[in-house]
């Protein structure tokens, strides 16, 4: 495993200092260069839990990965660069209408501590915030993808990441803030992360992984989201507006997109039936 090689993979070879600005640049470049994708599950492959094998898949073989692969690997890079990193467990909100959440450990995020501040960092979520979020409660934070706010649950070490449905948060009421996921500030160990990775690859209760084939990549002004046969392009403009266009692809076009948009070169024998909602 090689830091220089990893930095080159995320177009960050000129990285110099482990500062707040450096952290922002690393997360942004990671999202711009390494896709979220769960294709191995649909190819019948086991999700690897060993860090060296994840490195080989994502850095050497230029694949993407799911949340635990991407955040696990990114935590290694950040530590090698001198950042203080904790791994935290999450629950993802299932829908916007009911108080239903996935199990704890169904997602993991990173908390990076520096200069008497902490930052929520995530490079492994399908609708990712582009920049690290400062870990402060009830403060609206905005980046290219929208407005976010962290709230705290009462009498718990549990916090909720909320996103505003309206890009102009000044025109939003409380009903337009929706929970994305909640996280517990109790630090988790790598062994616990590996147990979750094993479960995700084998347990069909993790429906979002097994019932949908997904690839997501950020570009400077868009997010390109491939779910089954549907390719969605979410466009951003000055963090104030967004537009979404959808295209329904043929199977051949799906595999062309996997190669040409997401940079994933599957072998001729690696084929599957795309799955969507």
From TrEMBL:
**Which keywords belong to this entry?**
Acyltransferase, Transferase
Question: EC number(s) in its UniProt entry?
Answer: 2.3.1.5
| Enzyme class per UniProt | transferase
SUPFAM superfamilies hit by this protein: Cysteine proteinases
The UniProt entry, under InterPro entries, shows:
Arylamine_N-AcTrfase (IPR001447), Arylamine_NAT_domain_sf (IPR053710), Papain-like_cys_pep_sf (IPR038765)
What GO MF terms are annotated? arylamine N-acetyltransferase activity
Q: Which family does it belong to?
A: Belongs to the arylamine N-acetyltransferase family.
Q: Know the name of this protein?
A: arylamine N-acetyltransferase
Provenance organism: Brachionus plicatilis
Name the lineage: Eukaryota, Metazoa, Spiralia, Gnathifera, Rotifera
């Amino acid at each position: 495993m090689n830091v220089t090689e990893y930095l080159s993979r995320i177009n960050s070879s000129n990285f110099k200092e482990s500062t707040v600005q450096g952290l922002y640049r690393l997360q942004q470049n990671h999202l711009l260069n390494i896709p979220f994708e769960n294709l191995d599950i649909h190819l019948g492959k086991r999700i690897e839990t060993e860090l060296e094998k994840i490195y080989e898949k994502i850095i050497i073989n230029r694949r993407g990965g799911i949340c635990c692969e991407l955040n696990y690997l990114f935590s290694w890079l950040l530590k090698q660069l001198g950042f203080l990193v904790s791994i935290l467990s999450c629950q993802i909100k299932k829908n916007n209408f009911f108080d239903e959440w996935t199990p704890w450990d169904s997602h993991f995020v990173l908390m990076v501590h520096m200069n008497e501040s902490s930052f929520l960092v995530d490079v492994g979520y399908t609708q990712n915030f582009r920049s690290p979020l400062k870990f402060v409660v009830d403060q609206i934070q905005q980046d290219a993808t929208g407005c976010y706010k962290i709230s705290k649950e009462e009498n718990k070490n549990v916090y909720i990441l909320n996103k505003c449905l309206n890009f102009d948060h000044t025109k939003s009421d409380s009903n337009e803030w929706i929970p994305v996921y909640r996280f517990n500030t109790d630090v988790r160990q790598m062994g616990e992360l590996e147990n979750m990775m094993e479960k995700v690859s084998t347990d069909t209760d993790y429906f979002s992984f097994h019932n949908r084939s997904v690839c997501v990549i950020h570009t400077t002004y868009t997010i390109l989201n491939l779910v089954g046969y549907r390719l969605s392009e979410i466009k951003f403009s000055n963090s104030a507006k967004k537009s979404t266009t959808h295209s329904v692809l043929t199977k051949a076009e799906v595999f062309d997109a996997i190669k040409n948009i997401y940079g994933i070169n599957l072998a001729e024998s690696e084929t599957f039936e795309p799955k969507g909602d």
